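Changelog-adjacent note: as of this version, every example in the card shows the full chain rather than a window. The one below runs 112 residues end to end.
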Amino acid sequence: EVQVVESGGDLVQPGGSLRLSCLASGFSVSDSIMTWARQAPGKDLEWVSTLSPGGYTTYHASVKGRFTISGDNAKNIVYLQMNNLKIEDTAVYYCSTAAGVRGQGTPVTVSS
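Full-length structure tokens:
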């Protein structure tokens, strides 16, 4: 069964950092297009970043230069390193496969 489970969300102050993890099972992240998206309270789901096979990465303009997506093929995990967090980064963050398999999300709150 194809599954992804997100973790790593927390309460952090503006300017802080977090690393989110997406643990995959039932498939190999090294062969898959993996995406992080987020949904802020009262807003639509927003694409954040994508990691493609071969290591090609893309980012939403609002996070470019602050967030880094990467994969650990041995552990079958996709990470989202988030630096210089802003209040507007507050959201539930979801990891998903190209087929739309998504986890339950992990909440990130940026607040002073």
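Structural remarks: The chain is about 0% helix and 50% strand.
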